[in-house]
Amino acid sequence: MSKKYIYFNVLMKQKLETLKEYLYLLKQNKLTFVALIVILFLVIIAIIAPIIAPFPSHIYG
User: Fold this and answer.
1) How far apart are CA 17 and CA 43, in angstroms?
2) Is the terminal CB of the chain with fewer CB neighbours within 10 Å at N or C?
3) What is the pTM of this model?
4) Residues 12-56: pLDDT tens digits?
5) Which keywords, in A-to-Z order, does the entry hold (predicted)?
6) In this structure, what is the dihedral angle of CA atoms 11, 15, 18, 20, given to the nearest 10 degrees?
């Protein structure tokens, strides 16, 4: 294995552990976890909103 591959694995493992820590902290406070879910839902809706209800093209001619 190359050094880059090993470094990448170590880096990804550290990031995964950090993510697990954040999720653990979020689960400790239920209100924070619910707020995160609501915010993620709103962001996803905002991203796909043009697909759901496209702006009418006849307004601009």
Assistant:
1) 25
2) C
3) 0.56
4) 888 889 989 988 888 888 898 899 899 999 999 999 998 988 877
5) Membrane, Transmembrane, Transmembrane helix
6) -130
Query: Side chain identity at 14, as an amino acid letter?
Result: Q
CB 33 within 8 A of CB 27: yes
By CB atoms closer than 10 A (0-12, 13-18, 19+), residue 33 is: middle
Q: Record the tokens describing residue 39, joined without a space.
A: 């915010």
Size of the chain in residues: 61
Q: Using CA atoms, how far apart are residues 10 and 4, in angstroms rounded to an integer?
A: 10
List the chain domain ranges: 15-49
